[in-house]
């Protein structure tokens, strides 16, 4: 297999054709997965459907065995939950959605965007200029407010001393 999982030929050394159907006991022994786990996985993974013959005996096709190897790897090596493993298997082989190519902007649109950039640059420059002009006024305002606050404190202090 392409994912590094051993092929079923290396699991089954019973002389059967590699394309032969396998019983649940053979698959269980070869993959070291208990039969009740294999039956549970059949319930949880809708894509896992071994052939069932009379008496309910299961026969796993080569594709089923490969799928079981993949399920085992996802759950027991890669740490997927059952729901996550089901989704990973369902999504496998699906091509990712193609993104539509963005249309090339028209020359008119490019010129409008350049004009907007120039306007923003001019506004930024004007804002910086106004800000630098306001800084001294802000400093003077702070000085006036501080001076008024200090005068108020001085007057209250003088009144308290005269009363005391």
TrEMBL record:
<dbReference type="Pfam" id="PF13411">
    <property type="entry name" value="MerR_1"/>
</dbReference>
<dbReference type="InterPro" id="IPR009061">
    <property type="entry name" value="DNA-bd_dom_put_sf"/>
</dbReference>
<feature type="domain" description="HTH merR-type">
    <location>
        <begin position="23"/>
        <end position="91"/>
    </location>
</feature>
<dbReference type="GO" id="GO:0003700">
    <property type="term" value="F:DNA-binding transcription factor activity"/>
</dbReference>
<keyword id="KW-0238">DNA-binding</keyword>
<dbReference type="GO" id="GO:0003677">
    <property type="term" value="F:DNA binding"/>
</dbReference>
<dbReference type="InterPro" id="IPR000551">
    <property type="entry name" value="MerR-type_HTH_dom"/>
</dbReference>
<protein>
    <recommendedName>
        <fullName>HTH merR-type domain-containing protein</fullName>
    </recommendedName>
</protein>
<dbReference type="InterPro" id="IPR047057">
    <property type="entry name" value="MerR_fam"/>
</dbReference>
């Amino acid at each position: 297999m392409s994912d590094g999982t051993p092929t079923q030929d290396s699991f089954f050394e019973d002389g059967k054709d590699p394309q032969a159907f396998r019983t649940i006991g053979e698959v269980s022994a070869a993959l070291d997965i208990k039969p009740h786990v294999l039956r549970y996985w059949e319930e949880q993974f809708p894509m896992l459907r071994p052939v069932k013959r009379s008496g309910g005996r299961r026969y796993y096709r080569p594709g089923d065995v490969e799928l079981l190897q993949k399920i085992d790897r996802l759950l027991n090596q890669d740490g997927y939950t059952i729901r996550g493993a089901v989704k990973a298997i369902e999504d496998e082989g699906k091509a990712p959605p193609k993104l539509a190519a963005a249309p090339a902007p028209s020359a008119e649109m490019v010129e409008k965007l350049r004009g907007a950039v120039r306007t923003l640059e001019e506004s930024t420059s004007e804002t910086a200029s106004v800000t630098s002009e306001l800084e001294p006024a802000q400093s003077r305002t702070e000085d006036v407010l501080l001076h008024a606050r200090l005068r108020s404190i001085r007057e209250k202090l003088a009144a308290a001393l005269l009363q005391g």
